[in-house]
Automatic annotation (TrEMBL):
This is Peptidase C51 domain-containing protein. Keywords: Signal. Residues 1-23 form the signal peptide. Pfam families: CHAP. It comes from Novosphingobium sediminis. SUPFAM superfamilies: Cysteine proteinases.
Length: 260
């Protein structure tokens, strides 16, 4: 091949590289809720898309870090929590299905007791790409008791609410917890177990007379019966040893009867 066609082929290849890079799809994160506490300004540029955790932290002002499913427990004792939506609160989703790390979103508006608008990131794929921000999208409470334990959320590809009933921990409010909640958290913390001290001393058997065994009791009773049984012949012997002359004499018989 001559140098001219070779240079032309090289130029065409270089021109195609940017378009190939743009066409390469970004691998989606099935969890989409990871956060290692890195500064948002650095992390947002480092990631190929925005995750829900730094976005929820930014729009709500709630300073919690780590994966989304850890936010609810982290908030205990630091932020107020509840089951009613408020503007600025963060709704904490439990892990469910492919959403292994949970999800967090900020409440932007309360419509009624069962409907709110959310601001969150990395929920709906938009234009075929994940990691997109969505503001003022609808979420509806579908729990039987209207306690916001299950919700359906707007899903862009469907143009409406998704069909999944997502389990929810509750709402984290950007305010200090009430005194009762703080006390409950302290009470539930693991306390050191007290050392058990027995009230029974080493001399607890002192003064207790052991109960005699049945064998010893039987032997004692048998001995008493033997003594009484042997006593009668002795009395008879005493009676029979009276002088024969007294037995024949009337007075002797009286004396003998007295001796008996």
């Amino acid at each position: 091949m001559s140098p001219a066609p070779l240079r032309l082929a090289s130029l065409l290849l270089l021109a195609a590289i940017p378009s190939l890079a743009e066409a390469r799809p970004i691998a989606p994160d099935p969890a989409g809720a990871s956060d290692d506490g890195t500064e948002e300004s650095t992390r947002d540029f480092a990631l190929p898309y925005i995750q829900c955790v730094p976005y929820a932290r930014k729009v709500s002002g709630i300073q919690l870090y780590g994966d989304a499913h850890t936010w609810w427990d982290q908030a205990a004792g630091r932020y107020a929590r509840g089951t009613r939506p408020k503007v600025g609160a963060v709704i904490a989703f439990r892990p469910y299905g492919a959403m292994r790390l949970g999800h967090v979103a900020a409440v932007s508006r309360v419509i009624d007791s069962r409907t709110v608008l959310l601001r969150h990131a990395n929920w709906s794929p938009i234009d075929g790409r994940r990691g997109q921000m969505e503001d003022n999208v609808r979420a509806v409470d579908v729990s039987p008791d209207n306690d916001w334990s299950e919700v359906r959320v707007w899903y862009a590809p469907l143009g409406g609410l998704g069909t999944t009933h997502w389990p929810v921990e509750g709402f984290i409010y950007n305010q200090k917890p009430l005194r009762n909640e703080r006390l409950a958290v302290l009470a539930s913390a693991d306390a050191p177990k007290a050392t058990y001290t027995s009230r029974i001393g080493p001399d607890f058997l002192k003064g207790i007379v052991p109960e005699p065994s049945r064998t010893a009791t039987r032997r004692t009773l048998a001995a008493r019966v033997t003594v009484k049984a042997e006593a009668k012949p002795h009395e008879e012997d005493r009676t029979l040893t009276v002088s024969p002359s007294l037995a024949r004499d009337p007075i002797g018989r009286i004396i003998a009867s007295r001796v008996r």
